[in-house]
Each structure stands twice: as C-alpha cells, then as structure tokens.
Amino acid sequence: MEKQHNRGQDGAGIATVKLNTEPGVPFMHRLRSSAPQAIGDIFAKVRDEIDEIEKYQPEITKYPGLMKGHIRFLGELLMGHLRYATQGKNNVELCHPFVRHNTIPARNLALAGNFNLVNVDELFKFVNVEPGETHRNSDLAAMLEVLHHFLSKEDEERRNGLDVKNILQQAFSMFDGGYHVCGLIGSGDAFVMRDAHGIRPSYYYVNEDVIVAASERAAIRTAFNVGENEVLELMPGNALIVKENGEYSVEQILAPKERRACSFERIYFSRGNDEKIYKERTALGYNLSETVLKSIDNDLRNTIFSFIPNTAEIAFYGMLKGLEDYLNKIKVERIVSWGKDFDEEKLTEMVNRRIRIDKIAIKDVKMRTFITADTSRNEMVQHVYDITYGTVRPGIDTLVVIDDSIVRGTTLRESIIRMLDRLGPKRIIVVSSAPQIRYPDCYGIDMSKIGDFVAFKAAIELLKDHGKEHILQEAYGLCMELQRTNTLHAQNVVRNIYKPFTTEEISAKIAEIITPSDISAKVDVIYQSIESLHQACPNNLGDWYFTGNFPTPGGNRVVNKAFMNYMEGKNERGY
Ligand SMILES: O=P(O)(O)OC[C@H]1O[C@H](OP(=O)(O)OP(=O)(O)O)[C@H](O)[C@@H]1O
Ligand SMILES: NC(=O)CC[C@H](N)C(=O)O
Ligand SMILES: [Mg+2]
User: Fold this and answer.
1) Are 247 and 394 part of one and the same domain?
2) Ligand 3 centre from 409 Cα, in Å?
3) Where are the transmembrane segments (predicted)?
4) Which residue's CA is the nearest one to ligand 2's atom 8?
5) CATH assignment of the domain containing 310
6) Are 201 and 315 members of one domain?
7) Can you tell me which atom of ligand 2 is nearest the CA of 94?
8) What is the CATH number of the domain that holds 38?
9) Residue 152: inside a domain, yes or no?
10) Shortest-distance ligand to the CA of residue 406
11) Is the ipTM of this complex over 0.95?
C-alpha cells in the first residue's frame, strides 16, 4: 500500500478474512480511514489491538493461532486499497473495501478495486436495489450488489463447492467500464478480475507462501523482492481465482476484446519506477527533442531545459538524451570539418559544449494535485511549487520545461508560468509528454468534465474567433436527437468541435489561455503527437482522451453527456 500512494490519496481501507473459524466467530473485518495519513492511521489501529492484548498476554505473539482469535485483522486473506474518487465524493463512507454481510458465510463479500463503471444506474436497476444517498453515485456499490446477487444465487443452487468462475461470468458480463478489482468471499475464496479490453493494469505473483495481486508490477516487485518476469500480467478478461485451500487458477471469464490498455497509466498515473514504464516515459521525452530543437532554432547556448516535478522527471531525462544525441552529432561534424586545423583550446571548447539543464521548479509536498478533489486543488496548485533563483539570464535565455500532461492547465496558469516569468526568461516553452487531452476519461482517470479541459476551452475560443459558434449549437442539437432516440452511444459528437482546427492552432490557443495577462515572457506549447505516443507505448494503445476513440459503448455516451453538461452549465461528471 505504501508503494501505491500514487494511485489514491482520498483515503485507504483494508479487509481481512479468517479461514477455518468456529461457527459464530466473526471472520470478515474491514477498517477504513480518510485521515491525511490514512495508511498510518489504519495500521496504528491494527497495532493497538496487538499492544492491548500483549499487556495481558506478553507471550502471545509466539502463538499466532491464538492471536487469530483475538486480533481482528489477523487472517489468511488480506486486501488493501487507496482511494482516488472517480465517482461520488471523497469521504470515508466511499472508501474501499465495501462489505456485504450475510448470516450465511459464503454470502459475505468484500470488494475493492481500481476502476470506473459507466452503467451504474442500469446495474442498480438490474438487481432491483434503490441505492441510498451515499451510494447513489458509487460504482463500487453497484458492482457489489450485482456480484452479491450472483454469489447468493450460486450459493443457493450449488451442489459441490462455490463455482466462483460461474459467478464472475454472470456478473462481469454486465459491467461497462475499465477495472482491476479484487473480492474476498466469506467461504474463503478470493478473486481478482480485469476488464476485457485490459484498460486498467493488473498484475499478480505466486510463490509457496503467498498469492498476491496489485495494479502495478513494481509495487509487487519491491514488496516481495522479486524479478520483473516473476510478476505476471493478468490478461484482459481473465480472473485469478484462489480457492479456500490455496489452489489457484487463471480463468478466461470474458471473451478477450481488442487490447486498449490505458496509456495515461504509462504517462502519469502509474509509478515511474516500473522497468517498462521508465523506458516508455524516457521514449516519450526523447521523441519530443527534435520538435523542441526546431522551435528554438537549435540555439542551445541560450536555452535552459527543466521539468515540472514530479512525474515529468523521467520524460525530461529522455528529452535530454535526444538533445545530447543532436549535440554530439554536431560536435563530430564540426570536428571532422576542421581537418587538421585545431588546437587543444578549440577542441576543449567544442567537447565541453553541453545542454544547459537546471532544477528550476520545485514541488514542496509529495501530494499529487491532479488526483486531489476539485474543491481544494486550485489552492493546492498555487502553493506547492517554488522556483530556483539565479538560474536564468534575464532577457536572454529561453526556458524549456516539460510536464507529463496538461489537462485543465491549472498547474501552468495558476502557478508555474507566473513563477517562471519572475526569472525573466525571454520565452517559455512548455512541452507536454502527452498529446492534447480533448475528451473525457470514464474508465478510472478522473477527467470527466470536458468544460474544464484547456484543449476544449481552446477549441471553443477558436470557434468564437472564426465566427463558427453555430457548430456548438449544431453538436448540441445532434446530442439531443441521439438522446431522444436512445443512441447517445452511437457516435462521438464532440469530434465536430475540434474538426475545423489543426493541432497546431489548438496548441497556440492553449498557450494563450495558460498565459496570465501580466507576464513578460512569450509562451509556447509543444505536444506529443499521437503517433509518437503509440511508438513509445506500443503495448498501451488506449488513447480515447486524445483521439475520442472509446473502447466500450458507454464511452461515446459519456463524451456526449459531458458535452451536454457543458452546454447546460452543469458542473457534474458525464457518467
Ligand atoms: O493541467 P492540470 O489539470 O493542472 O494537470 C496536470 C498536472 O497534474 C499532474 O501533476 P500532479 O501534481 O498530480 O503530480 P506529480 O507530482 O506526480 O506530477 C500532472 O503531472 C501535471 O503536472
Ligand atoms: N480508483 C479508485 O480508487 C476507485 C474508484 C471508484 N470508481 C470510486 O470512485 O470509488
Ligand atoms: Mg505534475
């Protein structure tokens, strides 16, 4: 859990199942916290129980069997989760795991996951459950109800043992979304399930003692000190099913569909210490170096390169490698052209030419602002960054700073650009290792309100500039018509908003929007192209937020709904 802070800061939760308990003894426990240090808070409470019992039984830790009867969270099946709300609020009631209790052991279920579903209403309807106020917008609550429905049915009908595969096949064929989800059943069985497109990442590792699964490979590698290839990927549509007796199998639950693993995981969400992700982020940066050189007219003497911490650091190293390759090529060309006409001084000057890099921007807290709730985000963005003084030659140097992504543009507009301008650069070039984010995500990344996106704002501005605002009304009309005929899922109408403009025109407008009126430097923005993204992350081609090409039927519905919300002035998610 400590190695997955990157995936959630709203709160944390754990659940435990004890195997082979006497009838009547509670066997499933759950604890959640939304304290600022949620993991610490939870495990302090777990520890307190042990300390308490040690007061009376100082030797008890030598007898784990005995302890199991007294300590709630000592058990055989363990689950932990860090929440990042993509639906509902970020309060403790919505932290995972959710638990459904029942007097029949096999009908108890604890559930947690990294996911987002887009057909929550339909699911509640299917199980005929009217969700309470807290759970109305909770995809986890809907998923729990559906799974519990099929679990109870299976338990009722079963002849020999619970057929978990059968339960999963019935339940998961109903979910529209991206998910990596884990369930503990009161019978002592457990499962991990991944969506059929492989949208969300899912990994597992098995040895003689443990069977473990997580969203990220590196977290498992570090916690269990194992090699890259020992941790396996749970393939799309598959489930890892573990029986109460410790036997396990990987089963095909859903027919595999086109692989559309989320590229934003690679660009931003996942931790960058994963072997493959590190290479991919480096490649993303490398791919941008040529365009950057062009935009500064190859003037490396008067340009300083830096990055916006923290995630972009790796892409920065990649960009630097690209710039160094260019510089080395130039050095060789020059030296060769000299023939024999050089001396030590001339050669020394040439080989010592370097790419100028500096640590310009500093981030004072380890919190991630993007996964922080909207209400506190703006203020946080304004306070977390700082700059290094004395690095830039005012009026002479151009500053090139790379960030992994520009979503709402708040990091740049509310903080970074103004701060960098204080250093007096002639020009600021912002480089984004992700392409323009034009469409919402609905599979587990909280980019759902299209009106917030700086690329969308730019397109709207451009429509105004060119007297083409009628396109907005036409698109809205089309959405209304699709809604009327119940076919909002059939096409992505928002494409029409971007269609009249080139990527460069939109980038130029974004640069204008993120530039506060009172700064002196000229600001430009350079984006990754979609082709280069695919080349850098060939195994993660899920790119709907850049291209509008959604993998599931719910996707088009969400993007159209997000647009309608914008047009109607509703500040809510499109799913
Ligand atoms: O355009 P915006 O809507 O402002 O969002 C984009 C920024 O948010 C993320 O940073 P975050 O602070 O989440 O985390 P990091 O330290 O891992 O980069 C991302 O890395 C960008 O810097
Ligand atoms: N990624 C997560 O932490 C879970 C997201 C889930 N959709 C929720 O909002 O609760
Ligand atoms: Mg960042």
Assistant:
1) no
2) 11
3) none
4) 85
5) 3.40.50.2020
6) no
7) 10
8) 3.60.20.10
9) yes
10) 1
11) yes
Atom of ligand 1 nearest to the CA of 377: 4
Domain residue limits at 528: 273-449+502-549
Asked if 49 and 26 sit in the same domain, the reply is yes
**CB-count burial class (<10 Å; 0-12, 13-18, 19+) for 504:** exposed
Three-state DSSP class for residue 465 = helix
Instruction: Give per-residue pLDDT as tens, 479-491.
Output: 999 999 999 999 9
Mean pLDDT of the region 118-124: 97
| Angle of helix 470-484 versus helix 553-567 axis, rounded to 10 | 130
Å from CA of 239 to ligand 3 middle: 33
Distance 501 CA to ligand 2 centre (A): 35
Q: Kindly state whether residues 58 and 178 are assigned to the same domain.
A: yes
Per DSSP, the three-state class of 398 is: strand
| Cα–Cα distance list, 271 to 13, 18, 219, 439, 546 (Å) | 20, 32, 9, 24, 21
Q: Which of 545, 540, 454, 549 is closest to 281 using CA atoms? A: 540
Q: Is the CB of 544 under 6 A from ligand 1?
A: no
Domains: count for the chain: 2
What is the reported pTM? Answer: 0.97
As a whole number of Å, the CA-based R_g of the chain is 27
Would residue 570 count as lying in a domain?
Answer: no
CA 32 to centroid of ligand 1, rounded, Å: 27
- Ligand 2 neighbours, Cβ below 6 Å, are 8, 83-88, 94, 114-116, 139-140, 444
In a domain, 109, yes or no: yes
Judge if 231 and 282 occupy the same domain.
no
Cα separation, 555 vs 535, in Å, equals 24
CA–centroid distance, residue 116 to ligand 2 (Å): 6
d(CA 207, CA 212): 9
The tens digit of pLDDT for each residue in 92-115 reads 999 999 999 999 999 999 999 999
Q: Same domain for 229 and 355?
A: no
Residue 465 lies in a domain: no
